[in-house]
Each structure stands twice: as structure tokens, then as C-alpha cells.
């Protein structure tokens, strides 16, 4: 009976998605159009444009196939997920301030633990990178749009139902509770074995949501590969392709090989849970799941970190006053990371008892992959060496990225050594190492990109002082929180526990204080971001960062300059004075000079 109910729920969700697609097709025929900013100019011939303009209001956002609009949708979605995942972990850290379970139950803690990890990795990490990629790659390579604009839109619209499915256990649905499997979903727990509560439909819904997010990422990856290969301007060759596009191209290749494997493993797990198959419910099934999951899971780390490396490699030289040192070696190291990332997955399994010869080979590759990462790090440092450094908010976040990446990388090298890993495995040391990369590096690069390109997608400038407060609170909070976790790991504190021995209380309380500092920084970011988007001073100059002084302008800023010169209101009718995105005329609006942000 329970199987029939779960099957009916799955069919109902499929029917709902088909109904949504049919409705969208009915309200808008998805006519092709050439966006004004997509690569053509106002001076083009009439044949380049159709007579119909974009729909307005909500219909525009529901039916758009413009890469810039879809990039903004990805960004808004990712930031909402970041807020949800962040509030989840704040509640967990408040609980961990006391050794006993005083605020929430152990069961609810496990639910938050599971959803926090999945939310941050699949609903924030991948989409925020897709936001940058969608908006800027066509601008950087001189393309009119993505190669497959409609597929681009479909890839995004798979994500909202994925989030609803992943979070479904927290909704007031009868007889459905959140998954408590941790983000790794290890079997036999996730297979519903035994008398625990993981036979609940909340786990099935979470697995279906993960599968949808993987389909979305795979569709996006195919689109990015096709776009970079086929849509480049004739002046953009492989030799002068920008570093951000190189990292996204490599990331897309990893997605293409890694995510389908995760989807296959999830389908096998769903079959085990609902139809009595025996993929993971037999002897060796737990090890099989770990091999399949980590063959996806470790390339996933590089799927998340390569585009942030590209952002830093693009942004950092702009405020160092010189071009990126060793550009070719940064590209080669990116490709090397992509290849080596598929040969290290079993370093997550050193403690499982696999053949020592296999363990040694995975240790060797895991140590070797640190070399291309170190190449990038030395290139960033050398780029800054004797440079004309301007400590703008984007530059501060780039420097914070490099600092945290070094800490996260060095702690990772220790975990790649079998004897050290056997001692530190499954302790808070692993949590500290991983979060130095995910929060201290990936999120910092994301913030660097958001601040650096803020004038392009808003037409305005943010509040400089609040931006720097955001950086310093984030930097202090990150290091207080996660360095305390490193020390907890050295002390032997196991991860994923809601309660712990009293001797760990002080370090846990320090980590909680650090998490609250991080929360304060993100609240400042939200206020600054929203208020500046709505009311910030309007940017008139196409070079708000004064990049032209050092001849460091890139293609997206040339596009922005053209946009300012040819600005027309959404209705397509020219006015006597050029209008900004905020609806004010440039003559009347507050303006901002070329900003040094210092």
C-alpha cells in the first residue's frame, strides 16, 4: 500500500510538471528574438530584429530565453537557497553551543544536517556558478546568446521543483518527514533497511529532487560546451579565450561525466526502496554505493571550485594592475585538475578496508592533484607581487579566497595521506577542511564576482563601506568557525553528532560565535545588495573600475559601454533623454563617478 502511495505521488508530480510546461507554451509562444545587448548593436539592419518585444512583468520572467535574464533567475534562486541553507546551519550551531540537546531534537538536527549539505551543494553552489556563466560567457566570447536558449530556460525551470522536493519533508505533508541520511545518502540507511524512519517518503522526494537538479546541471553543461565551441566571435580563438570560459568549459566536461552517474545511482536506490531490487541491499552494497557516489562526489568538488577559480583569475588581475601571470599554465592546470579529479574518489574510502594497493594508488593521485591547484595559487600570488593593488571589495574577496583556499588545500593534503586520514576520518577536521573550500573559497569567489559585475547587471553601484564590512565579517567568521572545527577534529570530536562530551564545549561555542559573525556579515550583504540595486547611484561610465588605465578591460565592459550609449526603455520607443534601468533619465538620476572603491 505504501509503495502504491509513493508511486502515485511520483506520477502526480510528473503530471504537474507536464501541466506547467503546457501552460507556459500556451501563454507565450516563445518567439525568438535578438536581445538588444546580445551581440548586435542598435545600428544593425531591420532584418536582425523581430517586431515583437519581450513580454513584460511576470510573463517575461516565466518565458524568457535571454541568457542575461536566465542568469539573473539562477542568481536569485541560488541566493534564496543560500539563505535557507545558512539559516539551517545557524540553528544547528546554536544547538551545538551546549553539549546536550537543548534547542532541537537529535532527529530534527539530523534532518537539518542532511538538507543543509544538499541545499548548499546542489541548490546554491551549482546554480550560482550557472548564474555567472549564463550572464557573462556569451558577452565574453562575443556570442548573441547561448547555443540552445530554450534548453537553457528548461534547465533553470527544473530547479524550483527540485528545491520543493528536497525540502518537502519540512512542509506540513501528512506522514512525510525530512530525510536524515546526511548529504552522502550512505546505504543501507538510505535504502530503508531496518526499522528506522528512513523508509519514509521524505527520502524518496529528496532523491527525486536531487535527480532533477542533476538533469538540470547536465543540460546546462551541454549548452555551455556547445556555446563555447560554436558561438565564439571569429576574433575569439582558443589562444585568447578568457580564463573564466576555460574553467566553465572544464567544469561542463566534468558535469557531463559525473552527474549522469549520480542519476543512475539514485535511480537504483529508488528501485531498492520502492520495488524490492537488491542493488545496495546485499553484501557489498554499501561499498558499491560509496564507489558510485564518490566517483561523482569528488569531481563535484572541482565542479564547484573551478569556475570560482576562473572568477578570481579574471577579477584579481584587474585590481593588481597587471595581467594574469602565467595565463597558459593556469589553463593547463585547469585541464589537469579536470582529468585528475576522476582518479581520486576512493580517498573518501580509506577507512573501508579496500585493498592497500588500491589505497596507495588513490593516495598518489590525491597528492598529485594538489600540484595544479598550487600552480594556480602561486600564479595568483605572483600576479599581485609588485602590482598596483587596489583594495576594492572584489579584490578583498579575491585575496580572502586565496588565503582560505591555501588553508583548505593544505588540510586536504593531510587527509590524502592514508595514515593521517585513518586517524582524522569522520571527525570535525574533515568538516573544517571541506568548509574552508566551500564557504571560504567558493562563496568568497562568488561574492567577488557579484561585487565586480554589480554595475553591469544593475546599472548602479553598491555601498562601498557596507561591502567591506561584509568582507571582514565573512573573513573573521569563516576562520573562527572552521579553524575551531580543525582543532575539534584533532581532539577526536566525531562529526554529525547533535550531542558531545563536555570537553569539546569551548571549541564548539567558539565555532558558534564564528557562525553568528558570518550571519551578521550576510545580513549586511543582503541589505546592501537589495538597497543598492533599487536606489544605488546610477553608473554612467562604461568603465566604473578604471580598468582602461592599465588596458585591462574585458569584453563584457565593452558591451556595457555600448549598452549605456544605446539605452532605450523597455517599450522600445526612444525618448529625448536616455533612460537607466531604474526608469530615471540620466540627466536627473544620481550618478557615480568611476569608482576605485577605496
Automatic annotation (TrEMBL):
Q: Does the UniProt entry include the keyword Transport?
A: yes
Naming one, the record's GO cellular component terms include: membrane
Q: Does the keyword Oxidoreductase apply?
A: yes
- Location of the protein in the cell: Membrane
Protein family according to the UniProt entry: Belongs to the heme-copper respiratory oxidase family.
- Report any one BP term from Gene Ontology: respiratory electron transport chain
Name the record gives this protein: Cytochrome c oxidase subunit I
Q: Where is the signal peptide?
A: none
This entry's Enzyme Commission designation comes to 1.9.3.1
> Which UniProt keyword terms apply here?
Electron transport, Heme, Iron, Membrane, Metal-binding, Oxidoreductase, Respiratory chain, Transmembrane, Transmembrane helix, Transport
Q: What is its main location?
A: membrane
Q: Which gene encodes it?
A: coxA
A molecular function (GO) term: cytochrome-c oxidase activity
Membrane topology according to the record: Multi-pass membrane protein
Give the transmembrane region(s).
Answer: 6-25, 70-94, 114-141, 153-173, 205-229, 241-271, 291-317, 329-350, 362-382, 394-416, 436-457, 469-490, 510-530
Chain spans, region Disordered: 568-598
In this chain the Cytochrome oxidase subunit I profile domain maps to 61-548
Amino acid at each position: 500500500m505504501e509503495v502504491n502511495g509513493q508511486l502515485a505521488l511520483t506520477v502526480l508530480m510528473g503530471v504537474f510538471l507536464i501541466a506547467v510546461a503546457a501552460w507556459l507554451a500556451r501563454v507565450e509562444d516563445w518567439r525568438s528574438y535578438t536581445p538588444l545587448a546580445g551581440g548586435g548593436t542598435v545600428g544593425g539592419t531591420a532584418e536582425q530584429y523581430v517586431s515583437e518585444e519581450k513580454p513584460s512583468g511576470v510573463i517575461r520572467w516565466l518565458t524568457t530565453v535571454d541568457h542575461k535574464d536566465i542568469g539573473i533567475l539562477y542568481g536569485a534562486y541560488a541566493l534564496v537557497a543560500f539563505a535557507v541553507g545558512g539559516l539551517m546551519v545557524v540553528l544547528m550551531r546554536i544547538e551545538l553551543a551546549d553539549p546536550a540537546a537543548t534547542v532541537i531534537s537529535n532527529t530534527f538536527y539530523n534532518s537539518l544536517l542532511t538538507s543543509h549539505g544538499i541545499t548548499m551543494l546542489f541548490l546554491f553552489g551549482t546554480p550560482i556558478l550557472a548564474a555567472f556563466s549564463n550572464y557573462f560567457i556569451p558577452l565574453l566570447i562575443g556570442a548573441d546568446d547561448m547555443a540552445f536558449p530554450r534548453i537553457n530556460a528548461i534547465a533553470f525551470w527544473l530547479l524550483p521543483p527540485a528545491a520543493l522536493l528536497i525540502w518537502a519533508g519540512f512542509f506540513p505533508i501528512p506522514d512525510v518527514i525530512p530525510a536524515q541520511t546526511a548529504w552522502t545518502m550512505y546505504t543501507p540507511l538510505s535504502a530503508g533497511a531496518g526499522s528506522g524512519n528512513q523508509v519514509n517518503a521524505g527520502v524518496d522526494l529528496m532523491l527525486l529532487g536531487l535527480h532533477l537538479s542533476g538533469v538540470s546541471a547536465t543540460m546546462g553543461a551541454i549548452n555551455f560546451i556547445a556555446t563555447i565551441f560554436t558561438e565564439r566571435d571569429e576574433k575569439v580563438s582558443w589562444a585568447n579565450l578568457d580564463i573564466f570560459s576555460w574553467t566553465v568549459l572544464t567544469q561542463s566536461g566534468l558535469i557531463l561525466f559525473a552527474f549522469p552517474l549520480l542519476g543512475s545511482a539514485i535511480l537504483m536506490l529508488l528501485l531498492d526502496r520502492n520495488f524490492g531490487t537488491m542493488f545496495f541491499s546485499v553484501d557489498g552494497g554499501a561499498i558499491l554505493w560509496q564507489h558510485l557516489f564518490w566517483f561523482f562526489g569528488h569531481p563535484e568538488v572541482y565542479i564547484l571550485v573551478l569556475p570560482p577559480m576562473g572568477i578570481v583569475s579574471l577579477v584579481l588581475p584587474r585590481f593588481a594592475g597587471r595581467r594574469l601571470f602565467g595565463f597558459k599554465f593556469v589553463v593547463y592546470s585547469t585541464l589537469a585538475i579536470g582529468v585528475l579529479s576522476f582518479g581520486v574518489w576512493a580517498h573518501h574510502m580509506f577507512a573501508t578496508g579496500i585493498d592497500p594497493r588500491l589505497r596507495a594508488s588513490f593516495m598518489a593521485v590525491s597528492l598529485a592533484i594538489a600540484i595544479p591547484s598550487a600552480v594556480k595559487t602561486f600564479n595568483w600570488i605572483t600576479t599581485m607581487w609588485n602590482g598596483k593593488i587596489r583594495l576594492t571589495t572584489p579584490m578583498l574577496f579575491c585575496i580572502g579566497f586565496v588565503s582560505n583556499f591555501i588553508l583548505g588545500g593544505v588540510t586536504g593534503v593531510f587527509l590524502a595521506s592514508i595514515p593521517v586520514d585513518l586517524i582524522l576520518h569522520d571527525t570535525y577536521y574533515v568538516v573544517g577542511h571541506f568548509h574552508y573550500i566551500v564557504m571560504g573559497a567558493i562563496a568568497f569567489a562568488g561574492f567577488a564576482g557579484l561585487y565586480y559585475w554589480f554595475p553591469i547587471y544593475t546599472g548602479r553601484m553598491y555601498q562601498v563601506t557596507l561591502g567591506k564590512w561584509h568582507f571582514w565579517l565573512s573573513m573573521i567568521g569563516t576562520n573562527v568557525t572552521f579553524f575551531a572545527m580543525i582543532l575539534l577534529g584533532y581532539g577526536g570530536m566525531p562529526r554529525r553528532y547533535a550531542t558531545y562530551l563536555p570537553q569539546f564545549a569551548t571549541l564548539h561555542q567558539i565555532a558558534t560565535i564564528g557562525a553568528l559573525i558570518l550571519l551578521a556579515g550576510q545580513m549586511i550583504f543582503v541589505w546592501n545588495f537589495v538597497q543598492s540595486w533599487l536606489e544605488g547611484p546610477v553608473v554612467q561610465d562604461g568603465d566604473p573600475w578604471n580598468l582602461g588605465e592599465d588596458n585591462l578591460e574585458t569584453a563584457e565592459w565593452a558591451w556595457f559601454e555600448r549598452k549605456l550609449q544605446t539605452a532605450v526603455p523597455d517599450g522600445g520607443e526612444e525618448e529625448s533623454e536616455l533612460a537607466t534601468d531604474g526608469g530615471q533619465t540620466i540627466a536627473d538620476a544620481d550618478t557615480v563617478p568611476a569608482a576605485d572603491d577605496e
